[in-house]
Specification:
Strand content: under 5%
Radius of gyration: 34 Å
Number of strands: 0
Structural class: mainly alpha
Oligomer: single chain
Number of helices: 12
Distance between the termini: 126 Å
Length: 309
Amino acid sequence: MRALIVLAAACLAAACRPSEGPRTPGKAVAMDPGVPPQGGEETPVKPPPTPEALLRDAVRDLVALAERCDQAHFAHVEPERIKRWELPVDVKAMEGECDVILSRFADLLDRGVFRHPALDRFLARAADVSDRYLLLCLRCKKVGVRDRLPYIREVSALRDALRADVAALRDLAREVLALSDEDLKAVDRTPPGDVPQVAHEVFASLRDDLRRLVEVPVRDEKPVARYALRVADRRADRAVTLLRSRAMVQGQALLGPAEALTRAFSAAVNFFTGDYFNADEKLPPRVIRAVVDADRKYRAAARRFLNQR
């Protein structure tokens, strides 16, 4: 009897307890303003890449493209195919995939020259890749059966040199990709007192560049290295800009002779990188003479103001 009384009391207590039914919709639970939200956090906005980062990306992309072309096409150049009246390689397929090397190199040259010695070394080798690739395309299209052995030797040597350039380009890229943004701004931030000497090293090399890249090849009945010439030309333009914008008064005395030299050199470059690609064409004396005369006047100014020969 007592147990029944206890059980009835428990049931009565449960009946009187407030019901915990579903909450009324539309009522939000207030959050403590001091507690950060647990979900839906905003993703931080990523800053755009710097010009220097884009340069490194362009270097990486050019190397990747050159390596793809090497594996897919350069490695498969077989000059002996002319014995079977066949082209050494599928030139159309090679040009379809690899001609973009030339435009990507030109874009990288315009943005990256004369920023850091490592990048300039990379660009010089990329110019070699571009020059040899262009010449390989021309030679592979011009197939003759009269002088088979000389042709086979020439195309074989060109193929091997191009493949070696691609391998060297990959190695040089590692040094460039390790450079920081600040490293790639070093030349533009050259102290004003050091600018004339930094620029002089570029101007003083132009006469030898013309001899090495134009006079000797033409004398030996070989085509000029048009992309290597462009590297020298663009470096000279950038050196003039640096001299004009950052040099102190003493260094500005070199500006006139330096500009005259770079103009004469650019005139030669424009001639030999235009439609000129014929080893039999005579070397125009006036083009070379203009560079020689401008170089002599520049060196006289360098001796006077920099004690340089």
